[in-house]
Amino acid sequence: MSPERPVRTRLAPAAYLPYGREDMATYDYDFFVIGAGSGGVRAARIAAGYGARVAIAEERYLGGTCVNVGCIPKKLLVYAAHFHDDFEDAAGFGWTVGPRRFDWKALIENKDREIKRLNDVYDGLLERAGVARIFARAKLLDAHSVEVGGRTLRSRFILVATGSWPHIPAIPGADLCISSNEAFHLEDLPQRIAIVGGGYIAVEFAGIFAGLGSRVVLVHRGAAVLRGFDDDLRQALAPELQARGIDLHLERTVSRVEREGPQLRATLSDGTPLTADRLMFATGRLPNVAGLGLESAGVTLNEKGAVAVDEFSRTNVPSIYAVGDVTDRLNLTPMAIAEGQAVAETLFNNNPTKADHFNVATAVFSQPPIATVGLTEAQARQRFPEIDIYRSTFRPLKHTLSGRNERTLVKLVVDRASDRVVGCHMLGADAAEIVQGLAIALKCGATKKQFDATIGIHPTAAEEFVTLRTKVSEPGATA
After folding, report:
1. pLDDT digits 0-9 by tens, 414-436
2. For residue range 40-57, what is the model confidence (pLDDT) as tens digits?
3. Residue tagged active-site, from 84, 220, 249, 458
4. Which of 54, 214, 376, 464 could form a disulfide with 230 if both were Cys (CB 3.0 to 4.6 A apart)?
5. Are 421 and 442 in contact (CB under 8 A)?
6. For this structure, is 458 an active site residue?
7. Domain boundaries 362-466, corresponding CATH code
8. Per residue in 368-397, pLDDT tens?
9. Residue ranges in 299-412 assigned as alpha helix (H)
10. How far, in Å, CA of 213 to CA of 190, rounded?
């Protein structure tokens, strides 16, 4: 969405008037939201539904990172990349697949059309809720005032929901590199791409580009990718990435990048040279706080440079709240939505609500994908005196005919004293779909005995979670 679009101001009925009608003149709005990503849009819609006078300002595009340069387009590209495996696997099931050709431009055009549709959906949702949309950059002036589109507006409450932005290290030649933002809009599929990083974004794009036909090098400073995930998942994913032709350069970083004709030449920290058409940094995202005027309003940042908030997402300034990646708590789209909903409930429905950040399921759409909920084994060993580990690694039924040597891993972490399952982890096809259901069980405090009493659906990978019976030997135990 262009910042030059006109302001639209159809407002919701003023049913929410907790401070009396005299405040109608004091404040232009009850609730002003800066940033129309997932968290901001949810907060604005819910608040307007409770009768608050609401406006939302967005300088880039409706839907934020997730809709435009994150979850949605990334998943569409993952689907595209997965056809590479599907075509290869088909022969084992009797199918003859003819000549194949991939058209990057067609994929990007189709992706862009879907994103435009979603932008319009968000616009319609806000309009129907009665939220005034202002397509311009907003800046805080004080605890109740914002400057936006050349005007100063006052609001009883302000919500900062500006998300995060890709971080590219300040190395020589950094200006020659791209981030995930630009990766969604490349004119051509690179024949060779080097990706720097080992988190969600790096691992997912490595799989995307490899599946679509690029030669991929993944450079990561750590000894294993996906720091923070269960170690068994991290160790099991590495050979799967390599099996798809992804060249892993671990425990190294990029020191500098230079232009070498039409290509880029990167020098690694150990002196190794790399040549690629594109070099993409996926080395984390930073809270998007620059130029917001937070200091003018007296809003405190934490040691990570994120907006510091309490359990109700309120900053140190009572009238200013913040949700989503800009707070750097749990940077997931559904979490930002939950935080935004909680703020609206707290302020405009007389229902003080805290978003629950515990036992939140998440997935990495690598190939094969990873999904997890609850504690890793390492975290559980720190929290509980004794734990039990149940783990199974197997070749999925599909690949007995496809011939692919891909492995699936499922794992349960159990608190021995209570028998409660405190962690579920999976690497394998449909991991996200399976673990989403298990997240409900963990939220309800399910025990291993209850898992065992559940009849599985056969034949599925999911049934492995309810048929695990043998504990993994304790570390250091002798046979």
Report:
1. 999 999 999 999 999 999 999 99
2. 999 999 999 999 999 999
3. 458
4. 376
5. yes
6. yes
7. 3.30.390.30
8. 999 999 999 999 999 999 999 999 999 999
9. 333-348, 377-383, 398-402
10. 9
